[in-house]
Amino acid sequence: MLAPLLLLPLLFVVPPKEGKCLYVVLLMAVYWCTEALPLAVTAMLPVCLFPTMGILPSKKVCPQYFLETNFLFLSGLVMASAIEEWGLHRRIALRVLKIVGVKPAWLILGMMITSSFLSMWLSNTATTAMMLPIANAILESLFGNLETLKENCKHRSDPEGDSQVKMHVLPCEKQMLTTENNRPDWTDRSERKTLDKVRREAEYQMKVWKGFLICIPYAASIGGTATLTGTAPNLILVGQLKSYFPECDLINFGSWFVFAFPLMLLFLILGWIWIAFLYGGLNTRLCISKHDEREAAEAKARAVIDEDYKKLGPIKFAEGSIAFFFIIFAILLFTRDPKFVTGWSVFFTKGYVSDAVTGVIIISILFFFPSQRPSLLWWFDSRASNAPYVPLLSWRKAQECVPWNIILLLGGGFAMAKGCEESGLAVWIGNHLQPLAQVPPAVAVILITAFIACFTEFASNTATIIIFLPVIAELAIRVKVNPLYFMIPATIGCSYAFMLPVSTPPNSIAFASGHLMVKDMVHKKSSFVFFAMSCGVVAQLNMKLACDDDRPFNVEINP
């Protein structure tokens, strides 16, 4: 209730139309950052405020909520719903874990590879929610009960007093050191272990456990940057580019993948090395086998993975069909107009077929393609038995699984960008950013990326990029560099929200397990801020070709 009142002076200090638009933008920013209203409700504020304040007529505001970018996003969500419906994602996850092995460092790598791959197509939140139960099952096989592990970490060697330590090196054995007459009894144990060694082993196991819980949301956030449909900020970039620079068609699914996928692999490898180093996974056991308790526990974990995979049985007709359409979906999106070679879109009228058209064609097939192999005999003999007709995906399932609030959030961002453009607010902000034109572009891109990566720790990734992209685009025009040079690193850096549980839903899911503390996530952040800044540096190398071409932007580029 206070936010609208506190922002009222803007209407009298800033020029009339620009001031009104700035008032709405800042009001939405406050509500998005504080979540005083649901994010989707805040996203709908332009529908009522822009027309009533004379900023933009409703016939220009409302269409922004369902642009072709929203249809592309919707098609990705529907495809993800079909994959989840038939459990294809679980089969992929268990298969990767079977391949990489069960040593902690390799398991962390397997978890990160699987999470990042799935989050390229599924939502980051769904990926994390699916992978964490798999991780917990493997960890219990490796280390036993977590509560016992925590108790063992608290014990210290005390030869003068009583002590009781529960051992869970092997999950199927409950080993216990007891005391009798203040002296330890070793007769029932095949191996002698001091209490300090037991504690150190428990602490090591706890570190590995935390590494598993942290690596999954981190990999999901990193993997989402590789495809346009992987995370909402990527689509907001495309939508706002089309709003500010209608002639710009440099970014589509294929061209983005060529740029972002190598970058994602780089950060995934760096993330794995860093997490494995911090959480005890990198040691001589990575390449050398040792016949000890850990090896027995690893064998048990391997058996659990094998058993879970066998329970899935052979690939069902529905799973194979979904995999086929998923591959066709990715190939068609990638090859429509990849920029470095001629795509299949040349067979149609130029500018008519977009990524949204491709996506909707494929997902439409899912709603009528059968989930069970049909009987060919039925076509020749109507009395022959035939499998019941159940499509791969029902509309009811799609309604339940698609996060419609995110689609409204995307629309709110596009509406805000349109208002900033039509009201002249973007130009007004650009005039006030003129002093920043003296900053070298190479330094500016690193500062922008680092700032966005830090700001997004306290606000929604989607809301953050919606707020700052118009400002960044105008800054690029004032500095006379290609807008993509600033906008793409900022968009990728926005996805690197690793520090707090509230930063992004995957972090919240991992934190909700109750086995992580805030300090476990916060004190690892420094390396990932470095990642975000490195993103700006790598972007300078990868974007040289795009930045040499200023034709789609209609702005003067400083050589």
Could you characterize what this model shows?
The protein is 64% helix and 2% strand. It has 559 residues and is mainly α. It has one domain. α11 crosses α12 and α22 packs antiparallel against α23. It is globular, with a radius of gyration of 27 Å. The two termini are 49 Å apart.
For the structure shown, list the relevant keywords.
single chain, 559 residues, mainly alpha, two-stranded antiparallel sheet, 28 helices
Biggest sheet details: 2 strands, antiparallel
Spatial order of strands in the largest sheet? 1-2
Derived structural class: mainly alpha
Distance between the termini: 49 Å
Q: Which of globular, elongated, flat, extended, rod-shaped describes the shape? A: globular
User: Uncertain segments of ≥5 residues (pLDDT<50)?
Assistant: 156-192, 544-548
Instruction: Give the tally of β-strands.
Output: 4
Average the pLDDT over all residues and give the rounded result: 76
GO molecular function: citrate transmembrane transporter activity; sodium:dicarboxylate symporter activity; succinate transmembrane transporter activity
Transmembrane segments: 29-53, 65-83, 103-122, 212-236, 256-280, 317-335, 347-369, 439-472, 484-502, 522-541
Family: Belongs to the SLC13A/DASS transporter (TC 2.A.47) family. NADC subfamily.
Membrane topology: Multi-pass membrane protein
